[in-house]
Design brief:
Layout: E1 12-16, H1 21-33, H2 40-53, E2 62-63, E3 66-69, E4 76-86, E5 96-105, H3 115-122, H4 126-134, H5 138-164
Parallel strand pairs: 1-4, 2-5, 3-5
Antiparallel strand pairs: 4-5
Length: 165
């Protein structure tokens, strides 16, 4: 599994000014609806419904909002780097400035069950989120994710080789 399987360069935004979690969700849904058949308001309702079930803020100023979409054939991700952190009501009480949203079509949900735990593990990597905060452009963020995916692949291969020895 790789972050870049679900995220494209076009879905990365850096240095954003957003005033609230609601505004962040609106932006995410605007990006997603421009690339799918999903209506912006139904996407927004899905994200808000999921957020009411439980806060999607992780520790360290990171959030992974997610929801099911009624249309589509593969998950779609959006990454936002905020210029100023927003109140997110995360468990660690920190404001959030890095947001990785993932929207999963209902038809893909069973096969995507390992995706959210994987993303939570990835975004607990201090080196990754420090680099993402320092990135100045979507291209730089994309390069960070590509390098991270490559390092994870190498690590998985090494672990696989050790277990077969």
């Amino acid at each position: 599994m790789k972050i870049t399987e679900f995220l494209t360069k076009e879905n990365i935004r850096t240095g954003l000014l957003c005033s609230s979690k609601k505004r962040v969700f609106e932006l995410i849904c605007n990006i997603v609806s421009s690339q799918t058949e999903e209506q912006e308001n139904s996407c927004f309702e899905a994200i808000c419904h999921r957020e009411r079930m439980g806060n999607t803020g992780l520790n360290n100023g990171i959030a992974i909002p997610h929801a099911k979409l009624s249309t589509g054939d593969k998950p779609i991700a959006v990454f936002l780097q905020l210029d100023t952190p927003i109140k997110y009501d995360a468990a660690d009480h920190r404001d959030v400035d890095l947001i990785f949203a993932i929207l999963i079509p209902e038809t893909c949900c069973p096969s995507c069950s390992p995706l959210l735990p994987y993303l939570a593990e990835c975004f607990s990597d201090k080196n990754l989120f420090k680099q993402l905060r320092l990135a100045k452009s979507p291209e730089e963020v994309w390069s960070i994710f590509v390098a991270f995916d490559h390092a994870e692949t190498v690590k998985e291969q090494q672990e696989s080789e050790q277990t077969t020895d």
